[in-house]
Fold this sequence. Notes:
This protein has helices spanning 17-25, 50-63, and strands at 2-10, 30-36, 42-48, 70-77, 87-89. The chain is α+β, with helices and mostly antiparallel strands and 91 residues long. The chain has one domain: Alpha-Beta Plaits (2-Layer Sandwich), CATH 3.30.70.100. A hairpin with a 5-residue loop joins strand 2 (30-36) and strand 3 (42-48). It is globular. It starts with a strand and ends with a strand.
Amino acid sequence: xQSKRVIFEGxxxxxxxxxxxxxxxxxFEVCGWVKNLNDGSVEMQVMGEDEEVEEFLKHITEESPISxxxxxLIVENIPPLENVVGFRITS
Length: 91
């Protein structure tokens, strides 16, 4: 089991990035959330089995229609998420 904090930089606000990320999450066994940040980037925290999290991130960054909006990616391991069920968009 792993948890990650991911910051997506680029043209990731105003293009449906959070909604696409939530939709992609439905195809993986992950939980967490995604939200816009004041600096124009998008933050995501995600938790799941190692392979699920890695494949989920790969799908977002390499295979999805929103991948071309990402110019930079910052990924860090974080402690397990608590009291999180499903994957949601938050503010």
